[in-house]
Amino acid sequence: MDQEKLLPVTGARVWRGPDLAKHNDEWIYRLSVEEVSEIDAAVAKTENADLDVLDINQSNFVLPKLRSTIAKIQDDLQNGRGFAIVRGVPAARYSTRQAAIAYFGIGAHLGEAVSQNAKGHALGHVCNLGFDPTLPTARGYQSANKLNFHTDPTDLVGLMCLRKAKSGGLSSIVSAGTVYNTMLEQRPDLVQVLTETLYRDRRGEIPANREPWYRLPVFNFRDGHLTTNYVRSTIEKAQRFDDVPRLTEIQREAFALIEKTAADPALYLNMAFEPGDIQILNNHYIMHSRTAYEDYAEPEKRRHLLRLWLATEAGPPLADPYFEFMDKTATGRPNGYLMPGVTLSAPLDVEDGGPGASRQRVAEAAH
């Protein structure tokens, strides 16, 4: 995109965190007693039918009282601030399976759960597994380290808190539009750099007939919509491949500026998770991070979040490079890390495929 065509973006999704912190009643949806009872009933019905988590959908997980609230949340995600918190799911009295059922059921009213890794996990577990995040194939959410501001690949990302950390682990979010506008005021030349092709490492999660890297700018435009995709670690790790162009000084300067801007306390919003909280973000409009945390020594007390990546027809139009990274769902949205022949699953144990894992379904890979 030519530099003279780069213009500020406007709308409700362009916000500053300290302003929103004063009005949290506008983005926190607190469930009523009646709505919680409705979720309880839907969970019980799912359990009684011995229904697999993967088979939960809008038709069999009926939420008539919550329907209007979920519609408001979807509107917030697409046309409003780009995020929401649902508070009050009774996670403390649910088993892991019951919590997963409730969470997957609510998510089904917002979009289609897609694979989060090469193993085909449609339900993810965000917890400290002690992995070294500097390794090429590592994923940051599997450590207790601070995470830098980034985006996830799909339309929506949801996190449901089962247990919080002993200390730390705050979620930080920032408007990508505000970051873009702020950078545009200061250094339009660096914004231009971030509209150009960048090579990203697939971290060993490589679909058939694809290179171990993909190409995707940070700032992308389609039909007047700005969408943002930034994961610094995947850009840096791609440098291990000889066929990938070397990063330039001006590119690294642009990375430093987007990170400095996103991490400005005048822009971002911090929030603490309580058990039963569900955070939902529009990945195209929101960048997110997490502070480092200290966990409990006892495994049964350690910080544990469930994660969903959701594809939704309500999402914005996306530039073509998005689909070099991922193929499309049947409705034309990014399908996550879905690979040919992989079985889609919703494991209920932290460790992959443990005894609490759900039944598996063979995924039909999109081509």
Task: Describe what this molecule looks like in 3D.
The protein has 367 residues and is of the alpha+beta class. The chain has a single domain, classed as Clavaminate synthase-like (Double-stranded beta-helix), CATH 3.60.130. It contains 9 helices and 19 strands. Strands 1, 2, 3, 4, 6, 14 and 17 form a 7-stranded mixed β-sheet that branches. The protein has a 4-stranded antiparallel β-sheet with strand order 5-15-8-13. Helix 5 crosses helix 8. The protein is globular and about 60 Å long. The C terminus is likely disordered.
Fraction of residues in β-strands = 15-25%
Shape: globular
Give the terminus-to-terminus CA distance.
29 Å
Major sheet size, sense and barrel closure: 7 strands, mixed
| CATH homology superfamily name | Clavaminate synthase-like
Number of helices: 9
Keyphrases for this structure?
367 residues; alpha+beta; Double-stranded beta-helix; seven-stranded mixed β-sheet; four-stranded antiparallel β-sheet; 9 helices; 19 strands; 24% helix; globular; disordered C terminus
Summarize the structure.
The protein has 367 residues and is of the alpha+beta class. The protein has 9 helices and 19 strands.
Note the topology.
Elements: H1 17-21, E1 28-30, H2 33-48, H3 67-79, E2 83-87, H4 96-108, E3 112-113, E4 124-126, E5 147-150, E6 156-163, E7 167-168, E8 171-175, H5 176-186, H6 188-194, E9 199-201, E10 213-215, E11 219-222, E12 225-228, H7 232-237, H8 249-262, E13 269-271, E14 278-282, E15 286-290, E16 293-294, E17 304-311, H9 322-325, E18 343-344, E19 361-362
Parallel strand pairs: 1-2
Antiparallel strand pairs: 2-14, 3-17, 4-17, 5-15, 6-14, 6-17, 7-16, 8-13, 8-15, 9-10, 11-12, 18-19
